Amino acid sequence: MLKLFLTSARCVRITRFHGVCGLATSTPASSRKVCIVGGGPAGFYTAQHLVKTRTDVQVDIYERLPVPFGLVRFGVAPDHPEVKNVINTFTQTAQHARCSFHGNVTVGKDVTVEELQEAYHAVVLSYGAEGNRTMGVPGEDLAGVYSAKDFVGWYNGLPRNRELRPDLSCETAVILGQGNVALDVARILLSPVDILKKTDITQHALDSLAESSVRRVLIVGRRGPLQVACTIKELREMLNLPGTRPEMEASEFEGIAERLKALARPRKRLTELLLKAAVETPGEEELERRNRAERAWGFRFLRRPLEVLPSTDLIRAAGIRLAVNRLEGDGEGVWAVATGEVEDVECGLVISSIGYKSLPIDPAVPFDARKAIIPNTMGRVQQTAGLYCSGWVKRGPTGVIATTMNDSFDTARTLLQDMDKGTLDVSTIKPGSQGVSVLLEKRGVKPVSFSDWEKINSEETRRGETRGKPREKMLDVGEMLQVARA
Amino acid sequence: MSVASASRQFFTRLLQCQTKCAIPFHAASRVLISSYLPQVSGGNKVLLGSCAQPLSYSRSEEKVTVYFINHDGRKITTSGAKGDSLLDLVVDQNLDIDGFGACEGTLACSTCHVILDQKVYNQLGPITDEENDMLDLAFGLTDTSRLGCQVCLSRDLEGITVRVPDGVNDMRRSDDAGPTL
After folding, report:
1. What ipTM describes this predicted complex?
2. Per-residue model confidence (pLDDT) at position B3
3. Residues 84-123 of A with CB under 8 A from B
């Protein structure tokens, strides 16, 4: 390994004189070395912009897991395969001559951010949000209470959630939060298994869902119908979900119809659809479909969790106590205020879908604990030259993939600007991944390359084929590494 | 070896050649992969826009000229076959439009958002709920906005100008500015 490092150092010296390096291991003229921490959409889109815009930038992506793609693999719902098409673009980026992927490397443990800064001209932190906001109520630790992040991780094969084993033997599930993640969870809980079995949902989740007794899902939010955070595509999917009917309280929609015409288009169309489902008498065909449906779901508004109520043996959730709110303020400044009224809902499954949360990665990186992001200005980490950020760790954990794409392009542009203006010092020669490899080898860490991932990919695809699924995800990091090294 | 897997091998090698030769990669390869390598995109069927035709369909040789105005204001002159979508055009002609068509024409994103002239907009057919749902997420949505993957070239669209708006997030986010997740 050391030999390789020395060889490429010589190569760099040759480059300065001849501009061409005969060695196959390094690319000539890629004198600017950028390191990206995190192999999800933010990392890949930042890398994409950098290698596409310049011919003198080498980008190395470090990812903790042996497998790339982050939430595109572990967050996007199994029944939304088209959303995962971005993986094709990421694959192209990873296979680009001036980009390399290094999986199975935990930044902050296997290598520090300071060490990365020594090896690279610039380091971009794109490691997303692996934590979640907690409800902060008594009973949150009872069996049967999960964060949406963990529940989604469970059905999407995130290794750390493979032992979740949620108990689906109850009739009613309550989801706190009304964003797209909440709707994804509701949809997976209520979808006919015949549909799910053709997706890349993990087998153990499929088996659990096939035995599930959950027949009713309530999606609960603190505020009113005009504040739901989900988008219309996901709402439409719920309304069209086979074997289910929407059950909403028309009383919760009083006064909403009058507000429609003042709304901006996206909110207006969403509210119209919601209103229609809640208050309109459906046509004959739809009425019949609803009567035949064995499963139901609905939004409940103006409710905030106060406590998860335990079962008689005090081990598991048996219900949830909700404070009833009313809204104050108007337009964009609406907020919820407790009325003093309280409501108990019987349920055996409570899923809090109130937001993901970023965590600090390394003491050398500034972190705003209140906002749970890395403090930055347009992607430049505050008070730390050479450090940038993109994606959720920069902006907060909201937005679709396209939002992260644009944000990542922004950070890349900022970085390149700094290179051009000289604010980012690129005058010294940096060893890049060769330097990091030396450290990793000393520490017994063996990175997984992109072609190693492709072995994992092929194996997962092969296993899926036997079951009529696009893939059967490996759940165990050890197994992934075994296949990667085969 | 089946024809399908032979095709797959060919296109994989084609892609590898393109990337290793440091030719700026482009969405065309991506579309090639997704057309011929269903495993890469997870087995899902990929639609090349609503103008999707089976591979055996021979597109008309008649070309339609289209002018794109990119994010940065630069004008790009290009042409495509009748029946191609604007997304097909961007991909096939390898136009340098950053991040265009992320979901590859499956109505799962808004990154092929384009702005048309009123007259051209009026000429086009009705917009489906699915397209409107995705348009709702597009930044800088106008009354003459469409998704490029749903706009099909025809003789009537000869010489049109298509504006690609900036995708930069507006910092003045309000409740109605867009989705949260």
Report:
1. 0.88
2. 46
3. 84-89, 91-93, 95-98
